[in-house]
Design a protein that fits this description.
The chain starts with a helix and ends in a 14-residue tail after the last helix. It has about 100 residues and is mostly helical. It is flat and about 65 Å long. The protein is built from three helices and no strands. The relative contact order is 0.08.
């Protein structure tokens, strides 16, 4: 998430929190108080990890056969496609809708 988006979400939540306190409206100040605290935590995390850009030149792990360890493609409901079989589609009780 961009830094300035997080900063202005925190500032907006804080201003609504103050508005709720001044108007003595718990529905406004409680929810925006939580948002301000979470926004402050997010800004603290930005300050801690701002210089950490991640691992450079990292490659995905390879399997024994030289392929990638990440599976792409078919999931549980599509095994028939993998095996080359076709299935019959039966009409439903509500007319197929």
């Amino acid at each position: 998430m961009p830094f300035f988006l997080s900063l202005f979400v925190f500032l907006c939540g804080t201003s609504w929190f103050i508005f709720g306190l001044l108007g003595n409206d718990p529905f406004v100040y409680v929810s925006n108080g939580f948002g301000s605290v979470l926004g402050a935590l997010q800004l603290i995390l930005y300050a801690i990890y701002r210089n950490n850009k991640g691992e450079k030149g990292g490659k995905p792990a390879e399997t024994k056969d030289g392929g990638s360890s990440m599976e792409m493609g078919l999931r549980n409901g599509n095994e028939h496609l993998e095996r080359g079989k076709t299935i019959a589609v039966l009409p439903t009780a509500n007319g197929g809708l």
